[in-house]
Structures are given as C-alpha cells and as structure tokens.
Amino acid sequence: MELTNMLNKVILIGHLGANPESKTMSSGAEVVNFRIATSESYTDKATNKKIDKTEWHSIVVFNPHLAKIALQYLNKGRFDIISKNTMKSIACL
C-alpha cells in the first residue's frame, strides 16, 4: 500500500453578507459563522449581454484563535480573502 499526501486548499475572494455570529456549543466551545459572496461575470455569446453570477458560501470557524480574529476584523460588506488548507494522507491501493 502506498500513502500519498494530497493538499486540499480552498480560497474564497468576496464580500461578507453580514457580521460574523458567535455561538457556544453544548461542549462550551465557541464557533463563529459567517457568509461570503463570490461573484463572476461573463458575456453571453448568443445575446452579447453581460451575465452576473453570485454564489453564497457559509463558513464555520471552529478554531478558537481564528474565531476570535474573525469576530474582531470581519464586518458586513468587507472585501476579504478566506483561505483554508488541510493535509490528508490518502491510501492508494
């Protein structure tokens, strides 16, 4: 069996739809939730019209240090870059 390291990276560049909200879990851990809108535009070749497309992404921050930073610095309407990295070992059979 061969183990391969793979990188899972997500980068969202967009605007916050609302101020982050903090919630306390039954375990006592604090989590922070917020939504970020990403947009793209293109020209429809058939109609020659500009098309705008917006997608909303729900973000949940479980890391206590990052949750504190999100509450302190993120605000509604702010343009931000959200990046997430995770390393996973995958067994290739």
UniProtKB/TrEMBL annotation:
One Gene Ontology MF term: single-stranded DNA binding
Any one annotated GO CC term: nucleoid
SUPFAM superfamilies (alphabetical): Nucleic acid-binding proteins
Single GO BP term: DNA replication
UniProt entry tagged with the keyword Cell membrane: no
Pfam families linked to this entry: SSB
Lineage top rank: taxon: Bacteria
InterPro entries: NA-bd_OB-fold, Primosome_PriB/ssb, ssDNA-bd
UniProt keyword list: DNA recombination, DNA-binding
Keyword Transmembrane helix recorded: no
Alphabetical list of PANTHER family matching this protein: SINGLE-STRANDED DNA-BINDING PROTEIN, SINGLE-STRANDED DNA-BINDING PROTEIN, MITOCHONDRIAL
Family matches, as NCBIfam families: ssb
Protein name as annotated: Single-stranded DNA-binding protein
Organism (species): Bartonella tribocorum (strain DSM 28219 / CCUG 45778 / CIP 105476 / IBS 506)
